[in-house]
Design brief:
heterodimer; A: about 120 residues; mainly alpha; 6 helices; elongated; B: about 110 residues; 3 helical TM bundles of succinate and fumarate reductases; about 85% helix
């Protein structure tokens, strides 16, 4: 295994990432399908707010939010380690990939904290 | 570039994923505004009624629809269905056809 790329993968193992990418994908599809189903029917503030004050909905939403973070990290790791590489770009590739992953980590972390604030803050 | 449809399917699955990572900021922002207060819910409704907002939401939904369908195709392939070259081509065609239908329906819903 390539040490340089494995050190920033999600589960430090290709098989673990492969499985996590699929489990998180199923959770995300289920969540977005549910939200889409709720919205297509049309909803007012009171029922929307009521839905998100239910414990099960907060659990489902936090699960989707964490899945989003993991799914995006693994997916972008695949993209970055395919295109931002030493082979394609020379030594700059390693620097760019590192920077891209730092930015990605900051955004993922921000999304998760922002989401928790929305779910429990209002 | 002349690439087989399966290569396009793979590239667009990746590109839509990168796009959605940014698009999630829009959706989380909308969720924030929708739950913050009755006033912000109402002003979100007004914002989402503008043509620019509708286009942005449609673009994010289109990315979400395509990325989800391409992902479901992947899951089906993981179960050993359609793993041949012909299966890959047929799968990519089905994903594109279903995406067009669902993206059109999303557009009808938004407008």
């Amino acid at each position: 295994m390539d040490m340089v790329t494995a050190v920033t993968s999600m589960g430090r193992s290709g098989l673990s990432d492969w499985l996590m990418q699929r489990v998180t994908a199923v959770i995300l599809v289920a969540y977005f399908a549910f939200i889409g189903f709720v919205l297509v029917g049309g909803i007012d503030y009171a029922s929307w707010k009521g839905l998100f004050s239910q414990t099960w909905m907060r659990i489902f939403s936090l699960m989707a939010l964490l899945s989003l973070g993991v799914h995006a990290w693994i997916g972008l790791w695949v993209v970055f380690t395919d295109y931002l590489t030493e082979r394609l770009m020379g030594p700059t590739g390693n620097v760019l990939r590192f920077l891209a992953q730092v930015v990605c980590a900051i955004i993922v972390f921000s999304y998760v904290v922002w989401g928790i604030q929305i779910l429990w803050g209002y | 570039m002349r690439l087989p449809i399966t290569a396009w399917a793979s590239i667009t699955h990746r590109a839509s994923g990168v796009f959605l990572f940014a698009g999630m900021a829009v959706l989380i922002w909308a969720l924030d505004a929708s739950l913050r207060s009755p006033e912000s819910f109402a002003s979100l409704q007004e914002t989402l009624a503008t043509p620019v907002a509708k286009l942005i939401i449609w673009a994010v939904l289109a990315g979400l629809i395509y990325h989800s369908l391409a992902g479901i195709k992947h899951l089906i392939a993981d179960f050993g269905i359609g793993e041949t070259m012909e299966g890959g081509v047929l799968g990519a065609r089905i994903v594109i056809a279903l995406s067009v239908i669902f993206i059109a329906l999303a557009g009808v819903w938004i407008w």
